[in-house]
Amino acid sequence: MRFLVLNCSLLVVFTLAKFQPAGAQLNVQEYYDREYGYFFKYPTTWKLQRMPEGDANKDIRLTLQGANDSSFMVIIDRTQKTLEKTDFENPSDRTQRVGEMIQQTIAQIYQAVSANIKALDMKIGERRDLSNDVGIKFYVATFHTMKEGRPIIMAGIHAFPFNKDYSINFTMTTFWDPAAMQENEILTEVFNSFLLTGEPQTSTVPAKPPGDEPESR
């Protein structure tokens, strides 16, 4: 999988909550991709760009530019083998297989990007299995310490719909600014609004921030 680093950074708090930015009256709209079966919400003031399909943009489906040099991307990765729901019915087997997929994703995407941007260190804030009846789904949050400038947050929701020959990767990068509380909350809401078509809304406890006993690469 190819991965394009835009203005990188990483979000610290993920609540997986309903889109309802506090302290700001924002106009939001929903983006639906019926071809690949996913949707998310974003402020209307942000710039969304669909990437033309072809060799030049074989993997990147769209880009979304937010406030304070933050960016989102949807990357479609063609898989060699489709996932069957029956293969993940055993809880212990699913836990092991999803764990292996998460580790592979960290190595192929996050560690590669961290090396590409010449980060001094990468810490993993949390890895969480969000799988359901629609497909295998998980997210990873990472924090990158830079030699100069602000730290970078990079996070992604990685979904593998059952019986499909592709995965959908919804990634976010942003510079970490703890003082920008409102902007960080909006970024969180956009990130957490990503769902597969047919996927139920879920409520979970807040994720641990990357600085809370993180795991170094």
Jot down its keywords.
globular, Protein Transport Mog1p, Chain A, 11 strands, alpha+beta, disordered N terminus, 8-stranded antiparallel sheet, 3-stranded antiparallel sheet, 217 residues
Describe the structure.
- An 8-stranded antiparallel sheet has the order 3-4-5-9-8-7-6-11, covered by helices on one side.
- Helices cover 18% and strands 34% of the residues.
- It has helices spanning 91-116, 181-192; strands at residues 28-33, 38-43, 47-50, 60-65, 71-78, 121-129, 135-145, 152-161, 166-175, 195-196, 215-216.
- It has 2 helices and 11 strands, in the order βββββαββββαββ.
- Mean pLDDT is 81; it is low at 1-19 and 203-217.
- It has a single domain, classed as Protein Transport Mog1p, Chain A (3-Layer(aba) Sandwich), CATH 3.40.1000.10.
- By secondary structure, it is an alpha+beta fold.
- A hairpin with a 4-residue loop joins β8 (152-161) and β9 (166-175).
